[in-house]
UniProtKB/TrEMBL annotation:
<dbReference type="InterPro" id="IPR038765">
    <property type="entry name" value="Papain-like_cys_pep_sf"/>
</dbReference>
<protein>
    <recommendedName>
        <fullName>Transglutaminase-like domain-containing protein</fullName>
    </recommendedName>
</protein>
<dbReference type="Pfam" id="PF01841">
    <property type="entry name" value="Transglut_core"/>
</dbReference>
<dbReference type="InterPro" id="IPR002931">
    <property type="entry name" value="Transglutaminase-like"/>
</dbReference>
<feature type="domain" description="Transglutaminase-like">
    <location>
        <begin position="152"/>
        <end position="231"/>
    </location>
</feature>
């Protein structure tokens, strides 16, 4: 069990931060916001967002979960129910960061000979696009914001954001719904944390977190299948010992939001936000 104490905002400035929610990666409990602030919900991605114009403390408990999933090899693109696709149609819309309609993306799909044909295995399609991403990008130049698929395609050297937006664009091009998972890697324990572990909790702040994003695919049975190409790329080259990859996410993450390229209206203001990750001054 992790206990977080996150300090957000400052006096006389407006700050946004997505409040972590329970999902397949974690159970969140005992959320306390002090002092109380305005809470808004983005209607598309269903993120819960706090808006503050003063310094606040956000505390909560988190129980991370280990994810190990597989995809039924008999599933095909035709197994998506029209209702499911309609409910998640926003995942198939292009934006500044993801674009499955780009001619360069289409050419990649043609070269790979991947198309949403009736009997094509969904597992084969997703695996092929995942491997393409691993084979054609280089991890580097990490930033605090989100790299677009265009940056990844053009420069090849990119961070976890570029790995994810390129893979999302490839998936979108064949009408496979998928989304960006936004959060943090929890840094490896130091001696201080290990002492507190003996009492079954750890006090964690932003200093113990490292920004990270990955992908999850919506399967025809409405479950989410995770893909973490950036961590696998780095592990394959001996740059990290962290686990994570095709269907595997270890219990070392804090998830705070989903999606990208937000328009968040509040009172008389409209906030245009690339990513809900670190506290954002607006």
């Amino acid at each position: 069990m992790n206990q977080f104490n996150l300090q957000i905002g400052s006096n006389h400035t407006h700050a946004l931060f997505a409040i972590p929610q329970s999902d397949q990666y974690q159970t969140i409990s005992q959320i306390v916001i002090n002092p109380k602030v305005k809470i808004i919900r983005d209607k598309i991605w269903d993120n819960t967002i706090l808006l503050t114009n003063t310094k606040i403390g956000l505390t909560f408990h988190q129980q991370p979960k280990i994810i190990k999933q597989t995809i039924n090899p008999t599933l095909t693109i035709q197994d998506y129910a029209p209702r499911l696709i309609k409910e998640h149609s926003y995942l198939l819309e292009s934006n500044r960061f993801i674009n499955g309609q780009d001619s360069r993306i289409k050419k990649i799909m043609d070269d790979l000979k991947i198309a949403p044909i009736k009997d094509t295995s969904l597992l084969m399609m997703i695996k092929s696009l995942y491997i393409y991403t691993l084979d054609n990008l280089i991890y580097g130049k990490p930033i605090d914001n989100l790299y677009s698929y265009d940056q990844a395609l053009t420069e090849k050297i990119t961070d976890c954001g570029g790995f994810s937006t390129l893979l999302l664009s490839l998936l979108q091009s064949v009408n496979i719904p998928a989304r960006l998972v936004v959060g943090f890697l929890i840094k490896e324990e130091n001696t201080f944390q290990k002492v507190f572990r003996t009492f079954n909790f750890a006090l964690l702040t932003f200093n113990f977190l490292s920004m990270h994003v990955w992908v999850e695919v919506l399967l025809p049975d409405s479950t989410w299948f995770p893909l973490d190409p950036a961590v696998e790329w780095r592990r394959n080259r001996g740059l990290t010992k962290r686990q994570g990859g095709f269907g595997i996410i270890p219990a070392d993450r804090l998830v705070v939001s989903h999606g990208q390229d937000f328009i968040i209206p509040h009172s008389n203001n409209i906030y245009k936000v690339d990513l809900l990750q670190n506290p954002l001054i607006v």
